[in-house]
Amino acid sequence: MPIRVPKELPAIKVLEREKIFVMDEDRAMQQDIRPLEILILNLMPKKVETEVQLLRLLSNTPLQINVEFLHMSSHETKNTSSEHLKRFYHQFDKIKEKFYDGLIITGAPIEQFPFEQVDYWEELQKIFQWSTTHVFSTLHICWGAQAGLYFHHNIDKYLLEEKLTGIYHHDVLEPTWSILKGFDDIFFAPHSRYTEVRRRDIDKISELEVLVESKEAGIFLIGNKNNRAFYAMGHLEYDRETLQQEFERDQLKGLHPKLPENYFPKNNTDYFPQLRWHMAASLLFSNWLNYSVYQNTPYDLTNLLV
User: Fold this and answer.
1) Pick from 291, 289, 239, 226: nearest CA to 40
2) 142 is an active site residue
3) How sure is the predictor about 275, in pLDDT bands with cuts at 50, 70 and 90?
4) Is 278 a catalytic site residue?
5) Catalytic choice (37, 49, 237, 246)
6) Dihedral of CA 241/243/244/248: which sign?
């Protein structure tokens, strides 16, 4: 089934080349069903790339989904045109009276800053608080996950000695959780970050549970036991070349980055990276949509306030 997006969103062309069924508003208006309402708070600098990555994964279910995008009004975006933002994105004040089945909060390359020093932290706190009454289930990604844990549970992040970047083995610790239905015991996932959260802090919060962990990369997935909040520390949505592009970007900045681990065959940048995580990515997002959102969200979303 399709995802429904604005008619002229640039991501549509990429997704259609990949044979992904995308429905524009005109066609969707003719269908007599209630689609899921999903909001994406896109904090990544290259917003168009992130749109493609997330829409690709949201398309892999039999559910029809209305997707809207949100950006921070208190932050000036330098890598995405203002025309694109005006055309395809909302500001919080415009949607704060609405209700959504699901919310995705992306990562952002700012994890080395204390949360309070992020220029849009005050606005983001309002969105976090709003989500508890206006969103049924929220999926937080990387920095978005760390920020969510800090706001909702006062769990802080810790600076790593060096950037964690690469593809790592992960162990499924709690396979009975619906978001992990169909997962193998071990799967691969990308990480790209300078900070981490620690198990001892998570274990102090009774409503949280560590679901997936890596011996090398640490915690990957945390779930709230009410199924209404998930915190993913890695980037399953990444494309094959994303870590390579980040590595080359850091080289150009003179940061002398280390080679992403387990990424380039033979650790040689002349070889094309292998794609080993999209099966897990598709399953995680499909499970979240199906089990955590669709099967539990009220038909009348205003009942979230009850």
Assistant:
1) 289
2) yes
3) very high
4) no
5) 237
6) positive
- On whether 249 is known to bind a ligand per the annotation, the reply is yes
Number of domains into which the chain is organized: 1
Does residue 257 belong to any structural domain of this protein? no
Question: Which pLDDT value is given to residue 159?
Answer: 97
CA-to-CA distance for 266 and 273, rounded, in angstroms? 10
Q: For 58-98, write each residue's pLDDT tens digit.
A: 988 888 899 999 999 988 887 788 899 999 999 999 999 99
| 3 state DSSP class of 6 | coil
Q: Using CA atoms, how far apart are residues 257 and 291, in angstroms rounded to an integer?
A: 39
Alpha helices in 96-153 (DSSP H): 121-134, 143-153
Does 108 map to a domain? yes
Residues 6 or more apart from 262 whose CB is under 8 A from it? 166, 167, 168, 188
CATH of the domain at 216: 3.40.50.880
Annotated active-site residue 235? The verdict is yes
Confidence of residue 24 (pLDDT cuts 50, 70, 90): low
Chain centre to alpha carbon of residue 226: 19
Mean pLDDT value across residues 220-246: 96
Residue 163, marked binder: yes
Residue 256 lies in a domain: no
Q: How many other C-beta atoms are found inside a 10 Å radius of the C-beta of residue 256?
A: 7
pLDDT of 31: 45
81 marked as binding residue: no
Strand partners, 104: 40, 139
Q: Which of 51, 111, 142, 152 is catalytic?
A: 142
